[in-house]
Amino acid sequence: DAGVIQSPRHEVTEMGQEVTLRCKPISGHDYLFWYRQTMMRGLELLIYFNNNVPIDDSGMPEDRFSAKMPNASFSTLKIQPSEPRDSAVYFCASSLWVSSYNEQFFGPGTRLTVL
Amino acid sequence: AQKITQTQPGMFVQEKEAVTLDCTYDTSDPSYGLFWYKQPSSGEMIFLIYQGSYDQQNATEGRYSLNFQKARKSANLVISASQLGDSAMYFCAMRESYNTDKLIFGTGTRLQVFP
Question: How many angstroms separate the CA atoms of A38 and A25, rounded?
């Protein structure tokens, strides 16, 4: 079975450009999470969806960041305009809620570099 | 205040020995969950083990076990019979309430296993 798929795996862009990160969750999973990992801040949750509906976006740093989940098999995280401080690894994760145990399966991540 | 604290930035262990990675947490909700993830140098996040706050026994998964001391709010990961492939970053995470699916991660511990 395919795991969580993220694209691109690496992205290098210049300050001011729009960046779109993509995620395909594991089929059948009803939760999708976007995380950002940096040396300074560690791994932090940006936003998560349940059944395609955003539940908690309190971690989204500012209005430059937006996330959508138009259907159960696709989500995007967009940064517009991008800034050098957005450079990080962005992870997408998905899970299927069964009980209090809600294991999240992570994708391989997208390494974003903003010059 | 930190909700998840990992006080060991780095640990060394000899192959075949056991090692304990520390994690303390803070939540006022009686219903919570604790997770450990492994992140090898390749970057992916790999789920290792889960402990629910109401679980009576310490969780075990193969060579991994979780030393759960509820009164002390600690959830240490024990890796038995360390292998060279265990060298990685290890993250403790908490789902601080059953009312949320948000995970809060610690800063991680880098484990190095030497021959």
Answer: 22
pLDDT at A62: 84
Residues of A in contact with B44 (CB under 8 A): 106-109
Closest partner residue to B105 (CB to CB) among A43, A101, A109 is A43
For Cα atoms B10, A9, A102, give the angle at the middle one, nearest 5 degrees.
65
Instruction: Enumerate residue ranges in chain B where pLDDT < 50.
Output: none
- Taking a C-beta distance cutoff of 8 angstroms, is the pair B23, B34 a contact? yes
Nearest CB to A89 within list B43, B50, B105: B43
pLDDT of residue B96: 80
pLDDT at residue number B1: 58
When scoring B4, B101, B102, B104 by the number of chain A Cβ atoms within 10 A, the one with the most, hence best to mutate, is: B101
The tokens describing B77, both together, are 């990961």
CB contact under 8 A, B104 and A45: yes
Give pLDDT, residue B98. 75
Q: Return the structure tokens found at A100.
A: 């209090």
In degrees, to the nearest 5, what angle opens at C-alpha B52 toward C-alphas B97 and B26?
50
Q: How far is it, in rounded angstroms, from Cα B63 to Cα B68?
A: 16
Q: Write out pLDDT tens, residues A33-78.
A: 999 999 888 999 999 999 999 999 999 988 999 999 999 999 999 9
Amino acid at A36: R
Determine whether the interchain pair B101/A102 forms a contact, defined as Cβ–Cβ distance below 8 Å: yes
